[in-house]
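Reply to dn_fold:

You asked what the input looked like. This is it:
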Amino acid sequence: GSRGTARRPTGPPQAEMEKEGDNEDLDEEQPQRELSRHSTSGKVSGHSRWRRLQFAHSLTGPYAAISAISIGKDLYMLEFGASANVIGSILLVCSFVSPAMDSLVGTLQDKGRFMLRCFPAATWGRRAPWMLTHSIMLGPLMFAFFLPPSYDKDLLHAWFLSIWLAGYWCVAASVNAFEAARVEIYPFKEERVDIEQYCKLTVSFGIFVGSGAGTMCLTFPSKIIFFFASIAGSAAAFSSAAAVPVMREAGSAAPKKTDGSAARATVLRNPVVLRMVAIRALSGVYETIFPSLQLYYFTFVFKMDKHERFLWLAVSGAIMAVAELGPTPFWAKLFTKSTTAMLYVPLALRMVDIVAAPLMVLFVKDVSVFMVYLFIWRFCNAAFSYWKVAACAWVCDHDGGDREGMILGVFTMVTNLGRAVTSAALVLGLGWAGLRTTICLEDEGVERDACERDKIHNQPESLTMYLQVMIGVMAPLIELVVCLLTWEFPIRPGSQMLADICKKQTESYRSRTSPKACHIVAGHDFVDSDAAGRRPSTTTSTKSPPQHQTLPQTPIGRSAFNFEVPEAGPESPVCSPPALDIGGVSKQRSPPSAPRSPQLTAVCENKAVDLE
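and this is what came back:
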């Protein structure tokens, strides 16, 4: 927005303006671009880069927990001696429990229950209390995960199950709160896409902490390493609470009371929602295959011992981080400007990965070639998350109303269902392929080294074949199906559905930021000239900076509205204060003012366009 007074726009002739109005429906992004011209740098939230990073940091703890538990199952089997079949069965059972958790937590957040007494919705909103409480709960669970009280198999299995269920509930609550708050705080595609680059940084940091802690425990198994891994995991979980002040801005009211099951059934009957459900479920399956099998691939395909495996895991992590995070600013800038590029560029890159996977995994058993494939894999998949985030938000804008949490909970539910079922199936597949697990922690010296060698080299050839087929064949086939569903998704560039969504977003935002009759502050009414049904005042005045006065005190303190209104004049006919008749002379009443709100400036300038 302009830093000076609002000026009458000097637009094209009337005929050209009418011609533009006729073609407005053909451009689905025109309403967003119009509003962006009247806001600060096109960012209606007014958040700085640091504020956006602080909000995205809410994902650090949940993804650290997900990564730690994901690689922790390998720790429980390879070092603690848990049974692969039992762990796989636990994961399979939990995969059917997790969808109920995701759906339930989204519905509870929408309704705002259980938190209102301690966290009033007027000041905390519906999402921030869940992030605060569950980040605090996740910390002790992460600490306990790496320190089981005993290595007895029955106790290990019960401990793993308990931590998994409690930890997943905390992760589901935190991620759902973030996703719903993102839709509420950032109403337009540009900011939603821009925030994704910060999410990639914080998610990558969380994965680094969680997987790094698990890898250190696998490479250097000892009590002191387990203790420091517990400290790192719990610290990452606690740190996500730093995003709570930003999340409190998501202050939407609770929806009207309706039957949750009926509302959920109505949503699931929507064909657009069902398309996104299929995409998210298959994406969860695809995203789980390689991370779940990477450790086993290095160990049993390349026959690496712990120290060599640790080195190559670190190298592969650095390569994937560069491929994922390096082009992030470029993707954010490109996709913010072009919705078309946001759809077709990720699809083209993923087709490259589909072709490269079988060629570089099935036919070549060389670790350097595998490192090249990892770079291609992450580079070709990194751009897709921008479309996925924008498309899920569009579905909420189109069908969600005030139930963003329920819809996003359904999306998270099917994604995590795909992940959990795939993780369980992969672990069971390891057992079916002939994986032999032994406990080497109780041995010392030469006996322990011999035990570790036998664990690597005494595995059947079917295990190697299983790992190659899952990464080189099954994963590309699932990726191909995801690409086809994305190509056919109905909310796409040029579609009438996307045009309607963009107009709905703009109207919704204007209705939230434009009070009745311009504004009411601390008992002073300043009636918008258009809303009052009269033409704006054209009283001439000399150009001068807006007058600032101290806001009057109210019974509850200083007024929350911070704004300034320019003096009426031929170039600023907007939001004129009412005239006062003093001694037969009509005078303009000066409004109280304070530092200008960019949102109010945008509203006033938009009204100037309407009047023109």
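The longest strand covers residues 579-582.
Hope that clears it up.
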